[in-house]
Amino acid sequence: MFPNRTAHGRFPSVHPLVIALAALLPLTAAAQDAPAAKDPVALDTLQVTAQRRVENAKDVPVSISAIQGEKLDVLGSAGDDIRFLSARVPSLNIESSYGRAFPRFYIRGLGNTDFDLNASQPVSLVYDDVVQESPLLKGFPLFDLAGVEVLRGPQGTLFGRNTPAGVVKFDSARPSQDADGYIKVAYGSYDTWNTQAAYGGPLTDRWSARVSALYQRRDNWVTNTRANAPAQGFEGYDEAAGRVQFLYEGDDFEALFNLHKRKLNGTARLFRANILKPGTNQLVENFDRDEVSVDGQNFSELETWGGSARLQWNLGRVTLHSITGYETAESLNHGDIDGGYGASFLGAGNSGPGFIPFASESADGLPSHRQWTQEFRVESNEWGRFDWQAGVFYFDEDVTIDSFNYDSLTPGNPQTGHAVQQQRNKAWAAFASGDFDVTERFKLRGGVRYTQDKKDFSASVLQAVLFGTPVSGPYIAKTDVNDVSWDLSGVYQITDNLNAYARVAKGFRAPSIQGRLAFGGVSQADSEKVISYEAGIKADLFDRRARLGFNVFRYNVDGQQLIAVGGSNNTATLLNADKSIGQGAELDFEAYLTDHVLLTLGSSYNDTEIKDKDLAVAICGGGCTITDPTTVIDGATYALVNGNALPQAPKWIHNLTLRAGFPVTDGSELYVYTDWAYRSAVNFFLYESPEFRSRSSLEGGLRLGYNWDYGQYDVAVYGRNLTDQVRVVGAIDFNNLTGFLNEPRTFGVEFTAKF
What is the rounded distance in angstroms from the CA atom of residue 388 to the CA atom of residue 380? Predict the structure, then answer.
C-alpha cells in the first residue's frame, strides 16, 4: 500500500503553487454548502506566555506566532523531527547537517551555521521553562504539547543571553484533576511508524500526574551502491522519548515536577558528492535520491535526559517562582563527510560519484555533558496600574567533546585522529520588568537584565589528526563578559478589538569558542549585540471570526558571530562581522471563512546584509563559482563578503493551511486539511556562489479524515511533500559540490483515540 520508493517525474510540469490553489478553491465552495452551526463560530482567545505570565496575545507587544492543537498534530503526522516547523510561521527557518540530532534555528535571518557541538545559537529554545543550551538538547521530539510559541526579536530581559534573534518556546500538556489522554498510531512510507500516547489524572485531591510517550521508526530507504562498504542503507531511524509529570496544587503553593528522556539510533546526515551541475544550483542529470555510493561508516546515537522542578508560592501581593532544571546529553555521530569514495591524490582517480579530492570520514561525540539552571522570580499580583516581576538566574554547563578521524581507504576504517575539547560555562543574571497603565488604553512596558558570563576552554590533540596536525595542547581560552539587555514598548488600544504597539529592544550573545583542531585550530568570537526596532498591529475581526497580526521591523547587529568554512584545507573559523542589518515585515492571519472552513496564513519578508568592507573568508578549494570580489592574502584567495545576505536567511517565507469540515451526523464529520510552506532561496555560506545557493522550496501536505463521537476518534490518510520536490538544503564546502537533501514524499494512515 505504501511503496518503499518514491516515483519521480509523475507530476506534470506545473508550478506547485498552482496545484495548491486548485485544491483549495473547490474545498471552500463545497464547505459553504454544509449546514450552518447553531451558533456562529469564533476563534478562541490566543493565550501566550511570552512575558512569563498568561496573557492575550493581542495585548503583548512582541511579534508572536503560535502553533497548537490540530495544526501541530497534522504537521508532525509523518514522524518528522522538529525541523517540520521550518517556514510554518513567519521568519522561522530550521536546518541541520546532523539529521535529527542537531537542529539549527534562524529567526529573521539571524542564526548560526556552525556545526561544532560547542556552538551557540542566537535563537534560544525553551522547553517547559528550562533553556536548552546545547544544540543536541534542542531536538527533543514534539509530543503531548499544549503549544509552541515563536517570539521574534531580542528577548534578553526575561529569557536571558543568547536570545538576540528570538525564542522558540514549547509547553507540555500539564497534569490536572480532570482525567484525559490519547493514543495515536500512524503508519506510512518506508515502513514508518509514529506512535504516541499520554494519560493524566488525579492521584489524590491535591496530586495529579501525566505520563507521555513517543516511539518513531523508519527503515533505511537510501541504498549504498558501493559494494562491501561498512554501511549499506541510510536515512532510517529508531527513536523513543518519554515524559512523566507530577503536579501538587495546594491552597497557596503549587509544585510541578518533570522528568523526561530521549533515545535516538539512526543514520547521520547523508552527504552526497558532486550532485550539483557546475555553475548552477541544478541537480546533475540522472540524479537518484534513493542511491548513494560511499565507503564510510554512518550512524547517529544520542541519549538525553533531564528534569525540572517548578515551584510557586502565593504570598498575597506577590507570587514567588522557583525553576530548577537539569539536562544531560551523550552522543556519537559518525559520517562519511566526503560523500563518496576514493581520493584522486591517493590514486583512486575520479572513481565513484565523481571527483573526491581527499577521503574524509569523521565522528563527533559528546561523552560528558551536564547543565544546571536555577531561577528565582517574584511577580506582583494585580497591583492596579503598575505590575512587575524581578528575579535572578544562574546557569552552569560542563561539556566534553571528542572529535575523531578515520581512514576510509584502509580496510576496517581505522581511527587516524582524536582531539578533545572541554568547556565550563557559568553565567548569572539579575532582571526586572514592569508595565504601567498610563491611561485606560495606553500601556508602557520595560525591562532590564544584567548578565555576567564566563567560559573556561581547553582543547588537545591526543592522536595526530587530518592534515598532519601533531599531538599537542592543551590550547587554553577564557572569556569573561558582562552585558545589560533591555526593552521598552508601548501598546495602544485603538478600539476594543484593535491594538497598535511599538518596541525597541537590545539583546546579546555571549562569546563563543571552538576547537576544530583539524580545521584551523582554536578560534574565538566576541559578544554580539543587537538593537531591534518593531511596530505593528494586532486585531480581532468580524466578531472574532478572524485574527490579524502585522508588523515591520529593523535590527542592527554589532559584532555578529559567524562561522567561515572553506578553503583548500577546509577550515572552520569563528569570526565577528563589523555589522549586519536586517529589515522586513511579518503577517499572521487566521479566519473562519465559513462555519466549517478555517484558514491560516503567514508571511514574512526579511532583507539581511553583512556590512563589513574588510571581512574576507576562504573560498571553496575547487568546484564552485565565486561571484564575490576576491583578494589574495598570504598567497590564498579570499572572498570579500560585504553586502552579502546572511547564510540560511530566506528573503520570503509564506505558509498556508486550510481545513474544510463536512458534518455527517451530529458529532461526526469528514474533513480535508491541506498545508503549504514556501521558502525563497538561501545562501549556504558567507561567500556567494550559484552552486551553494539553494533553489526556492514549496512543500505541501494533504490530510483526508473522518472523526466521530465529537472528535474523540479520528482516522485519516495523509501525504507529506506531495509534489515530491527534491531540494538541496545544505552543503559541505569540501572542494567539490557535496550537499544534502530535504525529506522525500511520504504517505500514511493515522488513527487517534482520545479519552
Answer: 6
